[in-house]
Amino acid sequence: MRSITLKRVKKLINGSPIIDDISLVIPAGKFFALLGPSGCGKTTLLRLIAGLEKLDSGQIFMGDEDISDCPINERPINIVFQNYALFPHLNVFENIAYSLRLKKMPKILIQQKVLKILEAFNLEGHIYKLPSQLSGGQQQRVALARAIVGEPDLLLLDEPLAALDFKLREKVLLELIELQEKLKITFVYVTHDQFEALTVADQMAIMNHDGTIEQIGRPKEIYEFPISSFVAKFVGTTNILPGTLRNLEGEPEIEITDLGKFKVDISQKKSWMSEGCEMMISIRPEKILITKKVAHNFSNHLTGHVHSIVYHGRSTQYNLILKNGMRLQVFEQNEEHFPQEVIDYDNEVHLYWQKENAVLLER
Amino acid sequence: MRKEKSSELPFAIGIPALLWQVLFFYLPLLFIVGTSVILLAEDGSFAGLSFKSFGNFLTPVYARVIFFSLLLGISNTVICLVIGYPLAYFLAFTGKKFKNFLLFLLIVPFWTNFLLHVYAWFFVLEREGVVNTLLMRLGVIHEPIHFLNSVFSIMIMMVYYYLPFMVLPIYSSLERFDRRLIEASLDLGATSLETFRKIVLPLTLRGISAGFFLVYIPSFAEFAIPELMGGDKLMFVGNAISHYILGEGTGSLGASFTVISCTVLLLTAGGFYLLLNRLLTPKQRCDG
Amino acid sequence: MGKIARLLFIATIYLFLYVPIIVLIIFSFNTESFPSPWKGFTWRWYEELFQSTHLWKAFSNSLIVALSSTLISVTAGVLLIFYAAQGGRIGKYLFLFYGNLVIPETVLAVSLLAFFGLMSIPLGLTTLVLSHTLLGLGFVVPMVYARFRELDYRLTEASLVLGASSIQTFFKITLPLLSPTLVTTALLVFIISFDDFILSYFCAGSSSQTLSLYILSMIRSGVSPVVNALSTLLLFLSSLLVWIFFSLKIRARIF
Known about the structure:
Low-confidence stretches of chain A: none
Number of strands of chain C: 0
Number of strands of chain A: 20
Distance between the termini of chain A: 41 Å
CATH architecture of the largest domain in chain C: Orthogonal Bundle
Shape of chain C: globular
CATH class of the largest domain in chain C: Mainly Alpha
Low-confidence stretches of chain C: none
Structural class of chain C: mainly alpha
Strand order of the largest sheet of chain A: 6-7-8-3-9-10
Helix content of chain A: 10-25%
Number of domains of chain A: 2
CATH topology of the largest domain in chain A: Rossmann fold
Mean pLDDT of chain A: 91
Largest sheet of chain C: none
CATH class of the largest domain in chain A: Alpha Beta
Strand content of chain C: under 5%
Radius of gyration of chain A: 25 Å
Helix content of chain C: over 70%
Order of helices and strands of chain A: EEEHEEEHHHEHEHEEHHEEEEEEEEEE
Radius of gyration of chain C: 23 Å
CATH superfamily of the largest domain in chain C: MetI-like
Shape of chain A: globular
Structural class of chain A: alpha+beta
Oligomer: heterotrimer
Largest sheet of chain A: 6 strands, mixed
CATH topology of the largest domain in chain C: MetI-like fold
Mean pLDDT of chain C: 84
Number of domains of chain C: 2
Number of helices of chain C: 11
CATH superfamily of the largest domain in chain A: P-loop containing nucleotide triphosphate hydrolases
Order of helices and strands of chain C: HHHHHHHHHHH
């Protein structure tokens, strides 16, 4: 199993850069997620790796081998398309056996391998059916089986859950994780759904509209320590509050107009930080305590006015308006282990958060 | 970075079809055009271009021939359209069981040798044919009617032959028509007629155009039907061309006449195309 | 009310289409030649038909020409698609094949006649095949190319990714997916060639006679039950072919 390295990869479509100077290392044997908004070019990047598109500049390496000029059918890379692209005139068995037949494997071996994978994917009952006779979930499994049976070094998945209904998605997601762990093949999973990415990834990269990578890291790192407001807003929801950095050398705090000063935690001083500079803090909604009572032991405190409440089943979302007109979102888990206070529309509430839970972002 | 795949494959692979088409379709046409305008000297060398040969045909007689052919083409097309569109419409909206059967019945004559149909109508319309014999037996008439060798028999045969050409493309576009558009229109308050005029008709324009030209263009230069069912009256373009080309020494005249009539055909066809587009596209109004 | 009118309308049209044919068939079995009314049932005209050597010669000529032109035009079409599948830019040349729709067959026939004369190509089966193939190309190329463009390009991509070369992909994926269209188109071209009259009239010369020309000669000599018999048989043949066409079309919808 080899790692994939992209060096300064560029791809232009109609003159504009869809992929703009991307350098990236996809570690071997891991589940890698590429997350980005629709149209940002993540599918294009996938296709570049598969060889379905040509590079305009840059290189792609597999381990130490430069595969930039390697034709599609010679790369040990397989892709599962969003619409599965199952061959409509071949039955399930033949679809899966396709790549094996090309390698001129002995018939008995092909049969063995295909039957084994059919079993693993619960498809034995459908061997001789045509794709048109299968359900969406079954088609997806055939597409997956077809891509894996040839034991590729790398498996690319292009929004595999997009065509499935909601309940099925969670199930398939977990099955994919199990599969990757078992096979130890490098998976590259492309999606615009941050929930999916956070769930599956060992390592993830966030791509933006300009065709560049904003941040790479483990899911928890990306979620807890986004390096830009784009990442903070795209991965999960967050509250962004703009202000000025004060007291950098002493006890640093952010001064927000008409709202006050709030303590911030600077564990790592960044180059853009200077006394009096403009900045923003990002606070995740679940990291804010909402209560009508007075609480202690919190670094920061605000008061707010409940504007609307949205009930989500396992959590409740409160939308608040602050003294200076800014809005804030707070999530609260509906544990209800003990009788809770009732927070209602138009209530005045207290909001508390710890300074360590606010991320500082450059403005 | 990577080699263009297409440059690896010689153009020669794709060429047979193109070559054939150019060689046997366009070259001969060019030749005909050439024959009509190129003058040859006594020794066969090139002596310049001349449009003189066309002058032979700028007479009332030939203008009449072309005019009648236009009439033939247009009337045939219109009749086929008037009969064909409703037929296609009913076919498209019929239940599945009948639909295939009716289509089958429509295509069988279409795929049977055309001359057999000419013969069939001969059989029916002849002086001693079925219709006359029947009418005489019933005492309706006392002498056989001369159905054949008339405009009537030509028209019947033309419609008979060309109807499927009109029906099938229209049927095809109606088949693919999204029924929900009709439902939406009715839901929004339009009557069936308005829905048809504003929604169905414009969106099936493609099929109508296709049918229109599949009928009009061949009808104009129709040779066999007037020849067989119209007797010896040299009324139409098709007959005229055949007469000249196959006649002794009139080959070059034939070429010129062919070029003239073809030009007229293409001009009128182009005109109709524009007209059709204009007529069947509802005016877009943006003045609120 | 509307339903009855609709039914009446359709019935009238189909009656118009079929009455001559039905009459023809009926009288092919009449013991005595028209115009005598129905006298009795007989196979006699059919027997006479089958004994005619001219008929069989004409029939086999038409068959040979139709098969050849179908074969050539479909092969040429497949080659063209093969080229396009490897990345060749065919699209811009496609308009060349629409000429068949814009130029009436009479004009084409006449041009070919003159052309063959110029090139000193003797008229006969060869010229027939040459000209009928043109007709065929006019159908094969646009229809098959259109279907080719409708194919999901990701299927070819999937094949490549799984390790197939461009050529393997063409034969394993593209061609099988195109085959329903190829077959229906081939059937169409065959029929058009077999039934063709105008091109045959001008380009067959005096030596070879196609079925259409044979029928013409018979018609010229007047009404005869033998022609009725021939018509009935050919109708039966056409029905068979249309039936095959329909079954294929229905199967093709699966793809």
